[in-house]
């Protein structure tokens, strides 16, 4: 039977790759937990940006979501930028008889002592002209502007059909 | 190349996809029929086997029609529910289930929900981004029509322009939805509750219909809008105003005399304002939600179901066609003697193949075409039934998606039809001639 040697050969050829993949996985698991948390949280004064995330995509645009907590005086989200995208726009979802769509918003005030959630079918930062495809597990740096205050966040790339950050619900 | 594709008008893209899906069938046809004129014999075969052809075609047509109509319906329902929610930018209610509150406030499905109090209501009204704030008080009904307590401003906002009459200007006046069986000038007595649980005669008051809204395609077409003050008074509650009220319904309400409302509709000055107000009124005391967002999430779920339905529809159609092709194989056995005679007369083997394949494919193509036609009729009937049951205007139409599905089905089954054709071609001529 000619099939069996072929299957054996394939096994032999694939084995090192499988071992390598196992190694990589182990390495991830040993990652310092504290370091991981630092990625999920960005602070500037009384502002906290938590759980920034986006979805894996091959398209040149992506939506970034996060939670914004403001313990201080009212701030106004005026925009954002990312070294990975040509343009970042604040957008808001609107449902009409023809279906739902995201529309650009010029700014968004975040009142004192409130939390604003950027989430699917709600508010988001839309990245246009994304330089390369985003794969699950990647990270995406975004600088969010509140007037003169700029907050750097690292968005976690989740699965293409994700509905929330994989650590959503964790307290930071 | 990708850019070129996206630059094409959507209609052209859809037509191109349909054509691409049909290409395999056309390709098979071109190869199978090359060099032969099967037309005259095919017509004779169809005539001779008229009844069987009609039954087989009908089977394929019905399965195609049901599949297409179901998928079109899902799209129609999605558009209908979105249209019905279009005017409801933001709803504020007491904390609880958003879906229950949405079904009650937007689609008027009766529900017991906690109330928003007068102080919170006053805060919403006072918000700098608020443009229109109105209570939506449900709970009473007249026959099957929900009686909703609200303000004249909300009635005007919902209807745009009244079809007839005027807005309510005094307590115990009402504006009727387009499909309510009451004319301007008629009176009605509300019952407490809805449907079978409604208690007639609990409220000893008469409302007079003074205006009628145009069709909105939403459950509000079945509703009676009345001043919220009347609803409160009917339930022996404070009427929302102080003792020296001039009995002209509407804002401003006095928080001290405000008995509460199950839901508050909010229209903000802009889309951004709507989100600002949502953040402002999402706390321990109230929840503020976008019916559009909840709907979009439900639609995403429906989209997943649609994918499954599309696959099921194709599987059903293919199964029906497989049955038909099995029937055809048996039919060709019955015709074996004639086909063998053809061969004996000098027809090449491939001619028999081409004839059998084109017979099967004719039934498939005819069935698919008639199925699309039947699908249009079935879609209309199903939409009317859903609209009658839910009052959500569902206008489902067959679209490109269904055409693509049917085109894919034709190609797949035209390929399947090669099998009976091949079996027929390889029958032994001599024994068939003797048999």
> What's the number of domains of chain A?
2
Summed up, the helix count of chain A is: 2
SSE topology string of chain A: HHEEEEEEEEEEEE
* Fraction of residues in H or I helices of chain B: 55-70%
Query: Most extensive interface: pair and counts?
Result: A-B, 24 and 21 residues
Q: State the secondary-structure class of chain B.
A: alpha+beta
- How many E-type strands of chain B? 11
What is the CATH topology descriptor of the largest domain in chain A? Answer: Immunoglobulin-like
Share in helix of chain A: 10-25%
- Give the radius of gyration of chain B: 31 Å
What ranges of chain A have pLDDT less than 50 throughout 5 or more consecutive residues?
Answer: 1-36
Give the helix/strand class of chain A: alpha+beta
Taking Cα atoms only, what radius of gyration of chain A do you get, to the nearest Å? Answer: 20 Å
Strand content of chain A: 35-45%
Strand content of chain B: 5-15%
Shape of chain A: globular
Reported for the largest beta sheet of chain B, the result is: 11 strands, mixed
> Which parts of chain B are unreliable, with pLDDT below 50 for 5 consecutive residues or more?
none
């Amino acid at each position: 039977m000619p099939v069996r040697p072929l299957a054996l050969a394939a096994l032999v050829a694939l084995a090192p790759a499988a071992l390598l993949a196992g190694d990589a996985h182990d390495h991830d698991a040993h990652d310092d937990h504290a370091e991981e948390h630092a990625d999920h949280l960005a602070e500037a004064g009384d502002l906290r940006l938590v759980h920034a995330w986006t979805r894996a995509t091959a398209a040149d645009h992506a939506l970034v979501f996060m939670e914004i907590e403001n313990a201080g005086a009212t701030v106004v989200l005026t925009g954002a930028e990312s070294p990975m995208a040509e343009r970042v726009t604040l957008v808001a979802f609107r449902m009409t008889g023809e279906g739902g769509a995201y529309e650009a918003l010029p700014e968004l005030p975040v009142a004192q002592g409130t939390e604003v959630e950027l989430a699917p079918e709600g508010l988001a930062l839309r990245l246009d002209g994304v330089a390369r495809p985003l794969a699950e597990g990647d990270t995406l740096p975004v600088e969010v502007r509140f007037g003169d205050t700029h907050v750097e966040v690292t968005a976690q790339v989740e699965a293409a059909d994700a509905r929330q950050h994989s650590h959503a619900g964790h307290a930071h | 190349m990708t850019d070129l594709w996206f630059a094409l008008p959507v209609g052209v893209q859809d037509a191109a996809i349909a054509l691409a899906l049909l290409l395999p069938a056309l390709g098979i046809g071109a190869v199978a029929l090359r060099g032969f004129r099967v037309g005259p014999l095919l017509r004779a075969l169809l005539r001779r086997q008229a009844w069987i052809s009609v039954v087989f075609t009908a089977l394929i047509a019905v399965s195609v029609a049901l599949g297409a109509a179901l998928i079109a319906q899902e799209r129609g329902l999605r558009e209908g529910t979105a249209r019905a929610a279009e005017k409801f930018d933001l709803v504020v209610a007491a904390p609880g289930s958003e879906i229950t509150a949405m079904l009650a406030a937007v689609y008027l499905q009766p529900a017991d929900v906690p109330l928003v109090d007068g102080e919170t209501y006053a805060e919403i009204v006072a918000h700098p981004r608020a443009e229109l704030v109105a209570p939506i008080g449900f709970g009473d009904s007249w026959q099957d029509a929900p009686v909703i307590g609200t303000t004249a401003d909300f009635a005007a906002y919902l209807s745009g322009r009244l079809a007839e009459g005027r807005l309510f200007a005094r307590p115990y006046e009402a504006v009727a939805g387009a499909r309510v069986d009451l004319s301007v000038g008629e009176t009605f007595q509300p019952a407490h509750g809805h449907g079978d649980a409604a208690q007639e005669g609990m409220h000893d008051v008469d409302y007079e219909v003074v205006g009628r809204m145009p069709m909105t395609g939403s459950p509000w077409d079945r509703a009676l809008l009345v001043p919220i003050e009347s609803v409160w008074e009917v339930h022996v509650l404070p009427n929302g105003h102080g003792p020296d009220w001039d009995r002209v319904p509407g804002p401003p309400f006095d928080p001290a005399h405000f008995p509460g409302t199950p839901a508050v509709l909010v229209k903000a000055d802009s889309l951004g304002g709507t989100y600002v107000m949502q953040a402002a009124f999402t706390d321990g005391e109230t929840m503020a939600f976008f019916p559009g967002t909840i709907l979009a999430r439900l639609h995403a779920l429906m989209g997943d179901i649609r994918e499954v339905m599309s696959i099921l529809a194709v599987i059903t159609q293919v199964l029906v066609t497989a049955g038909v092709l099995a029937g055809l194989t048996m039919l060709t056995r019955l015709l074996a003697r004639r086909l063998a005679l053809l061969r004996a007369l000098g027809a090449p083997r491939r001619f028999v193949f081409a004839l059998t394949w084109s017979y099967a494919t004719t039934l498939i193509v005819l069935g698919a075409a008639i199925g699309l036609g039947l699908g249009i009729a079935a879609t209309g009937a199903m939409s009317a039934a859903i609209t009658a049951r839910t009052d959500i205007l569902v206008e489902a139409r067959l679209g490109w998606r269904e055409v693509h599905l049917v085109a894919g089905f034709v190609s797949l089954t035209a390929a399947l039809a090669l099998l009976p054709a091949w079996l027929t071609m390889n029958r032994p001529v001599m024994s068939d001639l003797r048999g």
